[in-house]
Amino acid sequence: MMALAVLSTAQLAHGLIGLRQALREGTTYDVWKLKGDPGRIKRDQWVLGTGLSASGVMLILQCVATAGLLSRRRRRAAAKTLGVLGAVMCGGYPVEKSIRQAWQGNSPDRSIMPLTAAATGRAAVMAELGRCGVGLG
Q1: How does pLDDT run across 17-31, given as a tens digit for each residue?
Q2: Are 91 and 41 in contact (CB under 8 A)?
Q3: Least crowded by CB within 10 Å, which of 27, 60, 93, 126?
Q4: CA-CA distance, 43 to 54, in Å (whole number)?
């Protein structure tokens, strides 16, 4: 249980760092034919996310679920929620154009690659720990 809480907290920190960087640089979401407008990034990030982070709603849900791991009655639901969020984020990072470019070495900002690779890896482990319920009875 503690491993999932620590992991989710670290992954959430990566998400918030990515959100901050995306807002500062205007890195909007860019997935297939859906592309954000830098002029609306502050509004769009709440539901659609940015090119470097999950949506604000997902980040808040992750924070609430992480805190829920401390509750006896809500522990199982919190773990399962983190598992689902981890799975969604694990798939979400690689579909973003800015992240794919950074992973291929085509981005002028090399800080994106380690940030998003670590966030994706942590999301994958979070998905597995949440799916397994990390030993919840």
Answers
A1: 999 999 999 999 999
A2: no
A3: 60
A4: 13
Q: Please identify every stretch of the chain with a pLDDT value under 50, giving residue numbers as ranges.
A: 136-137
Q: Which domain holds residue 117?
A: 2-135
How far apart CA 16 and CA 133 sit, in angstroms, is: 25
Total H helices, total E strands in the chain: 6, 2
CA distance 57 to 25: 21
Spatial contact of 29 and 50, defined as CB atoms under 8 Å apart = yes
Residue pair 52/116 in contact (Cβ under 8 Å)? The answer is yes
The identity of residue 95, as a single letter, is V
The pLDDT of residue 21 is 94
CA distances for 31 relative to 1, 44, 63, 88, 133, angstroms: 34, 14, 25, 14, 31
Q: What integer pLDDT is reported at residue 134 of this predicted model?
A: 60
C-alpha distances in Å from residue 14, one per residue of 7, 77, 117, 135: 11, 23, 10, 26
- Give CA–CA dist 95/118, Å, rounded: 16
Q: Which amino acid is at 86?
A: G
Place of tokens 């090119």: 51
Number of compact structural domains in the chain: 1
